[in-house]
Amino acid sequence: MNYSSSAEKADHIARCIEFAVLLEVSGYPKPGNVHRTADFPETRYEHFLASAVATAPSFRKAARQGIKVAGEKIAPSEVGIGNIIKDAVDRMRRSQSGGNTLLGAIILLAPIAAAAGMIRNSFSLPKLRENIKVIVESTTPEDAVAVYDAIALLNPGGLNRVKKLDVTDPESKKILLGEDVTLFDTFEIASSYDSVASEWVHNYSITFDLGYPYFVKQLEETGDINTATVHAFLKILAEVPDTFISRKVGQAKAEIISAEAGQVLKEGGLTTPLGRNLLQKLDSKLRDSAHKLSPGTTADITEAVLALNNLNGYKP
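Structure (tokenized):
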């Protein structure tokens, strides 16, 4: 795609990201998640819609920073991805009353937006992935502090308590700066128990190698964006036990849920009566009152998958 200006390019990237968030939350019935036909008592579908719209300016800024890197006006370490994430979290928080709707997605999508901005000529997924690696590995201790501040704004559930650099420990920020611990370093520490952090560390392997190829195949086979979205969500959940769930109720329970998601797909998912019946049963099972079985991390990664598809030229 040819752009008349850097501003037009940044706007396009931000729209692709925003549309990805809107498509993901609209996909139904994604088991255990809020979607267009199911709410949680305190967090509703419209809270996610408001968050998607509110965070778009942050992704536009990320894209602009990536464009500056491409023009050699700033170094990758000067993108300020931490402050971009913090800005998006603050916009999300102030835009609606449903709480933490998009933290994990923001952490995944901000580097994608910056990396897309870095592409000088025609868009390509290999180039995007290469640029993502540059962005995340160039982060700084200041980026880490900004993300710690962003997380503190939300007090999200299911975070592991760790002995060093715990996000709830006021001393952690001093250590980050004093010991030159970058944002990438902190995600390396968390990568064993958090798939969003693992995506940063392993160059978005679930997004690029599992979720996106399967999504494209489903879209080609069914011609239906909703079916492709739900099936990609199920595929990711089946292959990668959701780390939000495992932190809440344990790895064994998360693996059982993954096996059930795989069975839904094996029986055809949304394309067969049996698949739809199994999907409805799984959705009911995962809607526990405490939301401990909600595959929130899977949703975050699905949003990244949809962002790739949109940036690669998808139009409904």
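Residues 7-209+299-311 form a domain with the Triphosphoribosyl-dephospho-CoA protein fold (CATH 1.10.4200). The CA atoms of residues 115 and 131 lie 5 Å apart.
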